[in-house]
TrEMBL record:
It comes from the Bacteria. Residues 8-97 form the Thioredoxin domain. InterPro entries: Thioredoxin-like_sf, Thioredoxin_domain. It comes from Acidithiobacillus ferridurans. This is Thioredoxin family protein.
Amino acid sequence: MEKISELGFWQRMAAERGLIILFFSSAGCHSCRIWRGLLREYEMTREDLRVWEVDAGIDMGLTQEFEVYHLPALFLFKDGRYLRPLQVEARPQALHRLVESVKDLPGEEQP
């Protein structure tokens, strides 16, 4: 899992290939700690997926751009293109099923 900031975010995203889960979190968020562990484990099981973590309290511009009001928040990208938000229970099997079911769908309009 890589921590990223809003500086150069879109340029870097445009150059990426494969799947990226953009994970908005905060240091004091208990649910975020649970998701962080789950996402780290999930990332290790997939060669085609990376997780980028954004600290919502520090990178507020990106947090507002994605209209994040509740933490944690997850968004899926493929080959640098926005696909959709991911809303799923914090279980590895549920996350995997959701990612697999939406990864080849056309993207939605970005928030």
